[in-house]
């Protein structure tokens, strides 16, 4: 089965390493991989928020598959509840800000982000500083550098930023940082999730720290009402089946190359098989001239965990993937423009390394729940390259 456009595009980001070491055009086809869950969205009815309009509805749109389009409107509905959530009761719980303030904060940040995508020079630097931070900023700056090679993003071509839909506001627990989870639906129709963070608790200090498009066939489960706020799991594993960091580390191992013997049971909607298959194709393509190794590791401080209404969790984090080609003696490889732009060299005789940031969001069950951990959103961005 051919992978839908979104998943294939993610896989081909990894496949950039192939052209980097063969002088090819990067068109290696990794689109035949899929997992048992399928990768196309199924049609479903959209639902609305509770009677007090305090909930938020998340939308999932399908991506192209085999030149046909499957779409889905899948809702995450938040309504009033008196049930207990993991870690605390909702009896006297309240969000860190009002829904109205959260919507304004999200809109302001997305406007600045959009300005950064469309701007030039010093204005871009300032708009990045005011809209993104941490790994998200590193990725944004790398994308700017590669814009001359890859062209502008679809989002940059939009006249205005997509409207924000605030799905979750972190609950007041006396701790920092505070979070907003926001969804947008750009012109291409693929919903994007954005995690915004304020390390001080001040509204003007919120920045995007993570963002990724949703995978086809996925939806965002229900959070607690936004006025009540969403619990944040700040340490340990709480009542989850697997600790958040361990979840992401298992996925990191799952997508390494050579592939480990033990493969964890995760639903990734075709993403992980596509990454592994792309690595296998790259290794075969350079056989006799270079050897390939891919290793992933977790940026531990980037791991954030928001609890859904049912006690399961949305685990959000960032991996670094190093794709390393070790060149055989007496072989000279010509890298493509993207590698040369980042590395500053136009010949490789010993080693070529491409570093990619992988932003992912995974739903993890609580103990006693019977479902497989599921990847909901993922994005890759080439951020560094070096060699000799």
Outline of this structure?
It comes from Ornithinimicrobium kibberense. The protein is of the alpha+beta class and 388 residues long. Helix content is 24%, strand content 22%.
Description of the structure:
The structure is a single chain. The protein is 24% helix and 22% strand. By secondary structure, it is of the alpha+beta class. Strands 7, 8, 9, 10 and 11 form a 5-stranded antiparallel β-sheet that branches. Helix 1 packs across helix 8 (271-285) and helix 3 packs antiparallel against helix 4. The radius of gyration is 21 Å and the shape is globular. The relative contact order is 0.18. Residues 1-52 and 62-90 have low confidence and may be disordered. Residues 21-79 have a biased composition (Low complexity). Residues 1-19 form the signal peptide.
Offer a few descriptive terms.
single chain; 388 residues; alpha+beta; five-stranded antiparallel β-sheet; 9 helices; globular; disordered N terminus; signal
Question: Count the strands?
Answer: 11
Low-confidence stretches: 1-52, 62-90
Task: Give the count of structural domains.
Answer: 1
- Continuous helix count: 9
Largest sheet: 5 strands, antiparallel
Q: Bin the strand percentage.
A: 15-25%
First and last CA, distance:
39 Å
Give the CA-based shape.
Answer: globular
Radius of gyration: 21 Å
What helical percentage do the residues reach? 10-25%
Oligomerization status of the protein chains: single chain
Class by SSE composition: alpha+beta
Question: Taking all residues together, what is the mean pLDDT?
Answer: 80
Written as H for each helix and E for each strand, in order along the chain, the element string is HHEEHHHHEEEEHHEEEHEE
Region (Disordered): 21-85
Signal peptide: 1-19
Keywords: Signal
Biased composition (Low complexity): 21-79
């Amino acid at each position: 089965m051919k992978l839908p456009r979104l998943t294939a595009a993610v896989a081909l980001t990894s496949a950039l390493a192939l052209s980097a070491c063969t002088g090819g055009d990067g068109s290696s086809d990794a689109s035949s991989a899929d997992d048992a869950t399928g990768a196309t969205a199924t049609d479903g009815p959209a639902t609305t928020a509770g009677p007090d309009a305090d909930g938020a509805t998340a939308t999932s749109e399908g991506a192209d598959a085999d030149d046909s389009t499957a779409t889905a409107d899948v809702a995450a509905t938040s309504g009033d509840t008196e049930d207990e959530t993991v870690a605390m009761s909702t009896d006297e719980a309240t969000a860190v800000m009002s829904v109205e303030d959260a919507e304004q904060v999200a809109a302001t940040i997305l406007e600045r982000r959009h300005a950064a995508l469309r701007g030039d020079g010093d204005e871009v630097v300032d708009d990045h500083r005011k809209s993104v931070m941490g790994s998200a900023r590193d990725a944004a700056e790398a994308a700017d550098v590669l814009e001359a090679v890859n062209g502008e993003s679809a989002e940059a071509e939009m006249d205005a930023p997509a409207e924000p839909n605030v799905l979750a506001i972190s609950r007041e627990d006396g701790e920092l940082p505070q979070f907003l989870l926001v969804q947008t639906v750009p012109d291409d129709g693929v919903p994007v999730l954005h995690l915004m963070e304020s390390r001080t608790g001040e509204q003007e200090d919120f920045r995007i720290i993570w963002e990724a498009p949703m995978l086809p066939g996925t939806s965002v489960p229900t959070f607690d009402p936004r006025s009540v706020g969403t619990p944040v799991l700040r340490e340990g594993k709480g009542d989850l089946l697997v600790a958040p960091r361990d979840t992401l580390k298992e996925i990191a191992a799952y997508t390494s190359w050579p592939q480990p013997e033990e493969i964890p049971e995760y639903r990734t909607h075709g993403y992980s098989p596509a990454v592994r298959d792309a690595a296998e194709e790259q290794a075969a393509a350079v056989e006799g001239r270079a050897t390939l190794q891919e290793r992933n590791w977790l940026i531990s401080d980037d791991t954030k965990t928001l609890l859904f209404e049912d006690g399961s969790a949305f685990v959000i984090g960032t991996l670094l993937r190093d794709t390393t080609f070790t060149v055989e003696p007496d072989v000279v490889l010509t890298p493509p423009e993207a590698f040369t732009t980042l590395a500053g060299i136009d010949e490789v005789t010993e080693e070529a390394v491409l570093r990619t940031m992988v932003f992912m969001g995974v739903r993890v069950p609580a103990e006693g729940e019977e479902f497989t951990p599921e990847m909901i959103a993922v994005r890759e961005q080439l951020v560094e390259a070096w060699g000799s």
